[in-house]
Amino acid sequence: MSRVLVVLHDLDDHLNELGGPLVDAGLAIDTWCTWVDKRPQLPPSAYSAIVSMGAIAGVEDHHVHPWMTVESEYLTDALSHGKPVLGVCFGSQLLAKVCGGRVFKAPTPEIGWTTVTATPEATDDPLVAGLGTEYDGFQFHYDTFSLPDDVVVLGRTGDLIEAFRVGDNAWGLQFHIEANPGVALQWLGTYAGELAAAGVDPERWQRETAAKWRSYRDACSQVGARFADMVVARADEEVG
Question: Which SS3 state, helix, strand or coil, does residue 203 take?
């Protein structure tokens, strides 16, 4: 059975809608909660894939979060062995840094629903091709990143990179593809002061979530299922 390491950095950002497709594929999942354990229970070689979720911390806070160094080691190992990787929000930023990019503050934070425009390279991408030429992204981040020339950009919102692929098997998605109404409503309460300071209209947040969540759930299910299929196929190749 293929074993996937899921890295969680905060209590309020877990797999959510991504969990179902991974479980349906029959994958064994180890959850590393970075605020509980200093490192995963098993070494990098034990895992067929890594999924890294969002975080309140920023990538440049590594000096106060020792788990970041450990996670970077696991991501580096996965990339060097061609194992599937999926980074979501913070996970995409850490992946960008590990593959040689630079993480920095965005000119304007992205908070709430935005439209992601696919690049021509996304047309035949095995993970995001089915999302279309334009699609919704649920956002909550202040940082963005640049990427080395050999990394393929798959989606943008304006000048900001929203999706990319490293090699053949690793992807970063800046938007929270896993989010559902429960996530949106929880964050609306948990970060009410922060959202108000950023000028976010809570009524608009709720209206847009109500209008978009079903199609967004379908998009997440598709991404999760495609990623899970790649994990299984890659593991089968190694066995064969």
Answer: helix
